[in-house]
Amino acid sequence: MLRRVAGFQSGFRWSTVGLLALFAITTVVGDADARSRRHHVRHHRTHHVVHRYQPPYASIVVDANSGKIMAAANADSLRHPASLTKMMTLYLLFERLQEGKIKMTTELPVSAHAASMAPSKLGLKPGQSIAVEDAIKSIVTKSANDVAVVVAEALGGSELEFAHMMTAKARALGMMRTNYHNASGLPDSQQLTTAHDQAILARALQDRFPTYFHYFSTQHFVYRGEAMRNHNHMLGHVDGVDGIKTGYIHASGFNIAIDVRRNHRHLVVVMFGGRTARARDARVKGLIDDNIKVASTKRTAPLVVEGWEGKTKLASVSPLPTPAPELPTTAAPKLGSTAPINPTPVKTVLVQPSTMHTASLAPLSLDARKLEQMPSTAEKPTITTVATVKRAPLPVAKPESVASLSAKTALHTAPASAKEHTGWMIQVGAFDDEHEAKVRLEKARLKATHQLGKADPFTERVAKGEKSFYRARFAGLDKTQAQAACKYLKRSDIPCMLLKN
């Protein structure tokens, strides 16, 4: 009897153990299966999202030796530059270095605005500073947004003012469809460019700053003990690639401007609209391989610097069925007063191209609609060398129309001599059309009535070959009054330049 009980108890124990083991195995298998299903769902969702993401594509391949455009697709369609913006930020920084106005060891202060930028960033704090050379390397490798703004504020006083300088420089280089609104490339509906324009900039950086271009080939950078790798993964992995910049925001996709040299051949390739960085790099590698073997081995193209003459046409265009980015719309500006506008006497003087040197180009900003209306670069001129960069201010874009101006407010003109105006003056723009210059004068007077109430407004016609443009200026000011007027106008988004006659 005792044996039976003992045997029953032993069998029961083994049965219990078996059931528990079976339950554990089932649970483990079930959990593994559940994890597998969840992973599959996540993978499917991720794959589905990537598959659906189709940023607008654009590309261009330029033979930098001959200047010939070897291949292009949507090369003149508007795109958001993302961090390719920093190519122009560095262009203006290299310019200051070349002029000797700053040094590589110059410390640039960090503001709260700069420190607040979204990543990618170096993580600088307000009150800190960063040396110019470290700023260059961090922008090239990590694409640090906070450092880009540090540079902008150091060179332009404010990021917006620096953006005006960037746009003006773009115009001087012939980048006619590019508009900058910040120094980093962070999302902004007014920040627009084209693949063709970015190819011009990539070439200009090499031709204008051969001493500094090597920074774009920096693969690694260590700052305060932290190592950073260049976002351009084609460096060191694709034969001949020696720069220059990558970028990404959701509206533009994965972008790149690349420079490659093989066997005395030299290509500049720009691409917008990659779904992933890997897909972008693969596409660009294909463009390089398709064109490098038939590229010129001898440099015959003129240097890409400020100034335009001649014409060039796209070699081939293969537009893809991708929409251009949504373009912003802006309302016409309102005048500062609703009171009737009394006619203001304005004199017009004719002068030949002056030898006046200015510290910087007049600020320039275009909205996207005006950029969209500009002709494509299929009819743009090629870039040729000019003897000097410092010259009289270039014509800037026409301002927005002022609806409230009517025939009753037409501005009068009277011949005069430029020698009549002595002392200090301010210039608030330069235009192809004299009427637009007069409209700008009236707008500036209304905005700064207190500062310009006794100033003498006039337009100055400048003849340059068969063309001419009109400068909008106020004279009859002393230095303090001119400085105060310019400061006030700039706060109202009206460009202003201080001049001494």
Structure explained in plain terms:
- The chain contains twelve helices and 14 strands.
- The chain has 501 residues and is of the alpha+beta class.
- The strands form four sheets. It has a five-stranded antiparallel sheet with strand order 2-1-9-8-7, sandwiched between helices.
- Residues 1-6, 22-37, 308-365 and 377-419 have low confidence and may be disordered.
List keywords for this structure.
alpha+beta, Beta-lactamase, 18% strand, 501 residues, Alpha-Beta Plaits, single chain
β-strand number: 14
Task: Evaluate the radius of gyration.
Answer: 30 Å
Q: Give the CATH superfamily of one domain.
A: DD-peptidase/beta-lactamase superfamily
CATH topology of one domain: Beta-lactamase
End-to-end separation in angstroms reads 127 Å
CATH architecture of one domain: 3-Layer(aba) Sandwich
Topology:
Elements lengths: L1 H51 L5 E6 L5 E5 L11 H15 L7 E3 L2 H4 L13 E3 H10 L3 H12 L2 H15 L21 H14 L11 E4 L2 E4 L11 E9 L3 E10 L2 E10 L2 H15 L55 E5 L16 H6 L50 E8 L2 H14 L1 H4 L3 E9 L2 E11 L1 H13 L5 E4 L1
Parallel strand pairs: 10-12
Antiparallel strand pairs: 1-2, 1-9, 3-4, 5-6, 7-8, 8-9, 11-13, 11-14, 12-13
Give a quick rundown of the structure.
This protein has helices at residues 2-52, 85-99, 112-115, 132-141, 145-156, 159-173, 195-208, 277-291, 368-373, 434-447, 449-452, 479-491; strands at residues 58-63, 69-73, 107-109, 129-131, 220-223, 226-229, 241-249, 253-262, 265-274, 347-351, 424-431, 456-464, 467-477, 497-500. The protein is α+β, with helices and mostly antiparallel strands and 501 residues long. Among the domains are: 58-294, Beta-lactamase (3-Layer(aba) Sandwich), CATH 3.40.710; 347-356 and 392-401 and 408-500, Sporulation related repeat (Alpha-Beta Plaits).
